[in-house]
Amino acid sequence: MLHVSCVLVALCCSLVSGRIVPRTLQVHEARESVPNGYQLTGPASPDTVLSLRIAITSNDTDGLIDVLYDISTPSSANYGKYLTKAEAEAYAAPNPDSVAAVNAWLSENGLESTTLSPAGDWIGIQVPVSKANDMLNASFSVFTYPKTGLTTVRTLSYSIPSDLKGHLDLVHPTISFPDPNARTPPVTRVLGGPSTETSSSSPCADVNDNGMTPACLQYLYGIPTTPATVSTNRLAVTEYEDEYFNQTDLQTFLQTFRPDMNSSTTLSIFSIDGGLNLQNETGLEAALDTEYTVGLATNVPAVFITVGGEDFQQALLDTATALLAEDSPPQVVSTSYGEDEDLLAPAFAQKLCNTYAQLGARGVSLIFSSGDGGVSGNQESQCRVFVPVFPSACPYITSVGATTQIPEVAVDFSGGGFSNYFLRPVYQETAVTDYLLYIGTNMSGLYNAVGRGYPDVSAYGVDFEVVAYDFTFGVSGTSCSAPTWASIIALLNDRLLAAGKPVLGFLNPWLYSTGASALTDIVYGNNDACGPYYNIGFDATTGWDPVTGLGTPKFASLLSSVGL
């Protein structure tokens, strides 16, 4: 109580004759320039009301990460001993002194906060631009991206009182910018190129002519068709930017490609921030994600997480905090969205990544597609420096790249590279070091050699047959490979739970150790989809590579790897 009292005394002392004595401010975050393609239009209207989120410093993030690695490493005595909701929140919760200090500052400025996260480490305020500029020594302005007409209100720097250092992590959105191109849509590619799979009885015999189907994936990776049996095991897909699935299309898909299943199978709806599932606005992404999770993870209860709002970064955070608020969140969550890492403020990316660590510590496997721009991130066509993608760059999630052809090779759009924000995690130290020795000084200066490498694994990602608008489309992208991996993990979890064992949780320490031998190493291809004039990227090779990761799944081997 002594520390809290001191904060209140300081607040009282700052009031002299009814006037607030200004605190000493120091720059907290700054961006040297606007992201490529954005233009400064002018100052924001002083009356514009900003919805700002403040991250209060968690009391034991290092302890949370230590526990995450301990319970996720197969050789540990604590493997699979996941934290309860309360235990995870205890690590993430801020110190009461920090809460008091931040709220005292807000109170000085006539503001009240709303708690936004279960652990209380995120709070929200509503503040006009004029007051935000004063209290943060900021210059909130209107920035425009002419190519798409997107406008946003941001600042290139902001300050906080010097005595809040160590109490306040960041204010968002300030120097983070929205993706001007929104989510890159799934790639549509022309079918072509004969498969080397010659058996006419194989479900994959005509995959390059007619596209990928659940039957071919089951054949290719040994995915069982036998129904799952554990009702508490759940698999979720997340959708943003008004992407909805249509129940009639899903029914048609199951009747066509999984006639052995009940065609009325559907997903439960989990709405965040007012997310909907309108039946007259089907999206190809949502159709792909739902059809290939329901259609591969036979009878695993599936959840459709629909997230409203227009700010993708905020939506990612709200999804994570909503899942943390659940007593029993889905054990596998598949997300086929991402954006260029450099659009996010480093502190925000780190805080969100730590939120993913909380979910991993509770036994949730987070799977993200690695992006469809090769080494170019989400840029429209060309790049001179490789651009990593977030959340794939976060070390506490599993990133999935893509392959093509049979036998499989890397596909050129498979997102991969190295983070500029996150250092290489210990679980991939050997694998990534070996790859860096392989490429030597080639492409030196184009990527961060000490950063977290991604993707971690891969799966087929070209010409998935998807039913949408009552038509069948051929859809390509790592958006195809992520739900494939998620379905496989959900089926493994079903077997583990049936045997009385814990689910797989955070996958990477297992994948980079005992799980690596249960994968097919992809050694050919590259991800040089960096525009026609540059033609540069990483090559797939023996072992891990930033194109296909450790390789593609073999279900029976993975089952053996987890002790079944």
TrEMBL record:
Localization, UniProt: Secreted, Extracellular space
Active site: E285 (charge relay system), D289 (charge relay system), S479 (charge relay system)
Entry-linked SUPFAM superfamilies: Protease propeptides/inhibitors, Subtilisin-like
InterPro entries named among the record's database cross-references: Peptidase_S8/S53_dom, Peptidase_S8/S53_dom_sf, S53_propep, Sedolisin_dom, Tripeptidyl-peptidase_I
Keyword flag RNA-binding: no
Keywords tagged on the record: Calcium, Hydrolase, Metal-binding, Protease, Serine protease, Signal, Zymogen
Key word Coiled coil present: no
Domain Peptidase S53: 211-564
Signal sequence coordinates: 1-18
Cofactor note: Binds 1 Ca(2+) ion per subunit.
GO CC aspect terms: extracellular region
Protein name, per record: tripeptidyl-peptidase II
The species this protein was found in: Wolfiporia cocos (strain MD-104) (Brown rot fungus)
